[in-house]
Amino acid sequence: MKHEPPHGPPPFQGHAASIASWRWTLLAVLPAVLLAAWQAAWPYPFFSDDSFISLRYTERLLHGDGLTWTDVDGVPQRVEGYSNLLWVMLTAAVGAVGIELVFAARLLGALATLAGLWFLAAALRPRDARSALVAGFAPLLVASTQPVMIWTLAGLEGPLVMALLAWGFGSLVQRYGDRNIACSWLPRTLFAAGVPFALACWTRPDGPLWALTAGTGLAAVSITREPVAFGLATACRRAFWFGLPALLAVAAQVAFRLNYYGDYLPNTAHVKAEFDPDSFPAGYAFVVSALTKMPGLACLFAGGCVLALLHRRTRAFTIVLLLPVVAWLCYLTVIGGDHFPGLRLLHGVIVPMALLAAIGLHAIRHQHLRIGVATVAAILGSYWNVDTARHDPRSKEARGETWEWHGKVLGETLGRAFAKRQPRIAVDAAGALPFYSKLPALDMLGLCDHTIATTPFPSWLDTVRKGVPKPPGHMRGNGTYVIEQQPDVITYSHAPGLPLPVFVSACEFEADPRFYEHYRCILLDLANPEILPGLREEHLAPLWIRIEGRAGIERSPDRVRIPAYLFGSFAAKGPAVNRHQPPSGDPAIDGKFLSNLSAIVKFWTQRSPTVAPTADGELALGLAPGQRTTLSVSVPAGSWRVTMQPEASNAIVRIAGGGQFSTDVVHVDGTGPVRFELLAPEDATAQLVRIVLDRTR
User: Residue 385 burial (CB < 10 Å; 0-12/13-18/19+)?
Assistant: First the structure.
């Protein structure tokens, strides 16, 4: 190969790094590490609810329940509700040594970010102070972006994706970035270069796109270095060897998935993957908005791309970095973007963007000018990124988001209250609440439930009121199926929850008479719990309880246990949300919906009576002085001794119908339900956990 004399020191070196180069790499990456640490501290303690889904899989794996999210009747249910296998396994490895799992996920995120920044700095092989200044350009740009700021400590796999792509693309820059440097196209070299991209395939289901586009770019580079007739076949062989690790990784995971879960696709793909041309405008708007939220990186990427294409030594290699960027942004457009804050799905694409911006600097022939431009551009571009990120409303939303920690408080409360009875809870938010409750659960959005995930979108979604949001990944549901599963507790929305349905499954409850017959709403009032160290917030959780079941009335031939909180419950009379449909135009129908809505809102806002945990964790109904409530319960004919728990509850129980009460025994003739009345004395409050009926004859 003909070598042109380099203009100054060559930008890329293919030799093994010496100890000195490691020191210069450390110097190059240090500003980026400090910036990333400062950035990640800004939204702390933000931790995504989806992160808790992965942690629930991790925890159950460590406890011997396999890669499962829940049990049904004590049997682990195999559904692939995660989309980050390698992340789950690495978190399990850290958790296996006794490290608390939330901290383990944060630690992995920090280490992965550090590794990613290191690989970016090492990509240009700094060997002295001047080259270290240029090598620090790409990691500093990446550290200043919104994905690093929001997601480094948020518990999901984004930092690992960034680290793997920085490793992968960085190694390609070192090997093939400069056409004046001799490179190896041996199969083993290409295979090794493809390993990081193979690991990315185990980290996200869309990981193969990176391997495919990078391999295509390498094939294009190969063609430019061979005669055309000879180069095409050679390029295909080289692309094959590069892509082989990813192909093997995907094949291995599909084989595992098919054997373990009985499906070719992850369950999350059934929920989220839906080709819909109507999503293109939203996806395009998301991509444009995302680039404007990283203005420093976007502008320097564009400038670097132009300079790299103009420079003969880097022109051919530009496609290796540019093609993955373009492909990924097109992919985001097709899927409709992402509803998470912090540009979560751009965590990987910032790597080739930053590298291409850095490579473009080497079109500047004068070394001192190149160093000056790199320094000024890195400082100004990073400042622009940071300033934009911190003023973005979605960043502020993530920083102030605490509902996941409300899920922790609610989950721990329910876990203590029902540790023995193990009721099944149906949730919209499948992360923190199930993770901390340790109870069997049903994911009503379908991420962790195969039946819901494969249920077609209901037709009524097409006619909802204008302005009702339809976030991607949240539109699956099957109300009939959920009711047939007979969950014992149902929560709407995220913690502390709402009394009204929001998403598909719950909206469809309103058309099912079984819901009105079997479920009652209670208000669990935890007052102002400390959801984070030094932070207390109001917590009132509406919970729909199945009247008969593990959270409701429990029966045996000689005993009936009635939770006192059912006495303070609300019985819905009919639809209130009406599947978010526009008004019908019929005053009688719309008036009925409004009446039902007003009734439940009144129950929610009056906050009386409410339920609260006792010192030992059980849930007790609290009654104000003189307050009374009633509950009709089917009781078999016979005589039943009535016991109140605790005995010193101050509560008074009476029979308002369906039986006769003498002393502490109720006599039931069996012709109808017994109507119990529960009241507090006029001069004292009452707090009752349950009423127990024991048969005497």
Answer: buried
